[in-house]
Specification:
Layout lengths: L1 H19 L8 H22 L9 H18 L2 H20 L5 H20 L2 H8 L1 H6 L1 E5 L6 E5 H16 L4 H21 L8 H31 L1
Antiparallel strand pairs: 1-2
Helix pairs in contact: 1-2, 2-9, 3-4, 4-8, 5-10, 8-9, 8-10, 9-10
């Protein structure tokens, strides 16, 4: 009941903000970044934290697909806020479901080490750059929006960023790492990426490098201990 109440309360508060954000204060760019990075982004990803106990539930891929269809219906109807959060929950459940295909913690670590390079290439030279520069509406449709107070514009995170956030958070819980600290550092990583992009006057930066770094920093010592223990167990079993 506690998590259900928290979920409803967060959704209500966020819905109000999304509905009236353009009528709020209009601050400087850096105050906007601080608000997004320290308030709005953490509040939005608190929704992922609240539904984390569902990470091992059955049928999550089907639920994610159904929510994806619902997001499309909301998009066609022009209901931007419901569409936004339907996309968030859809991709979150997909991320939870994908974790079931990872047999060991080392697989998750390998992904955390590889995807930053893939994401960086995609953003700077690959398909993401093409989409953002030549088909901006496509990126908007396949991203999660964080509206800026007092304006009609928003900062956006791509759906893969949301999926890996859910995957890493679920992995931290599944392997008994530090999900609380992982959630905090990964959430703050998005604000840091946004700040770096504005500071360097870039159109956008890949979010997965700092996201992966946040996950590894939060859990690095425990990850190393578990991987060594698993290797020793396998060696003993072969011996």
């Amino acid at each position: 009941m506690g998590r259900a109440a928290a979920l409803l309360g967060l959704l209500a508060a966020l819905a109000l903000y999304y509905a009236f954000h353009d009528r709020l204060w209009n601050a400087s760019t850096w105050w906007d970044i601080a608000f997004l990075g320290l308030v709005l982004i953490p509040a939005s990803f608190a929704l992922v934290w609240v539904v984390l106990p569902l990470r091992a539930a059955r049928g999550l891929l089907a639920v994610g697909a159904a929510l994806g269809v619902l997001a499309w219906v909301f998009h066609v109807a022009g209901w931007n806020t419901p569409e936004n959060f339907a996309k968030l929950f859809a991709i979150t459940f997909v991320g939870f479901a994908f974790l079931e295909y990872f047999e060991t913690l080392s697989w998750v670590v390998l992904v955390a080490l590889i995807i930053p390079w893939v994401d960086a290439y995609s953003v700077w030279r690959g398909p993401t750059k093409v989409i953002v520069t030549k088909h901006a509406h496509v990126f908007t449709n396949f991203s999660f929006a964080f509206p800026i107070p007092g304006e009609t514009t928003a900062a956006n995170l791509g759906l893969p960023d949301l999926m890996f956030f859910a995957l890493f958070l679920a992995a931290a819980a599944r392997y008994r790492l530090r999900p609380n600290l992982a959630w905090l550092l990964m959430t703050l990583s998005f604000g840091a990426t946004l700040a770096l992009a504005v500071w360097r006057n870039l159109g956008g930066l890949p979010a997965l490098p700092l996201l992966s770094l946040g996950f590894l920093l939060a859990n690095g010592d425990l990850i190393w201990t578990q991987i060594r223990r698993d290797r020793q167990r396998h060696a003993d079993a072969r011996g």
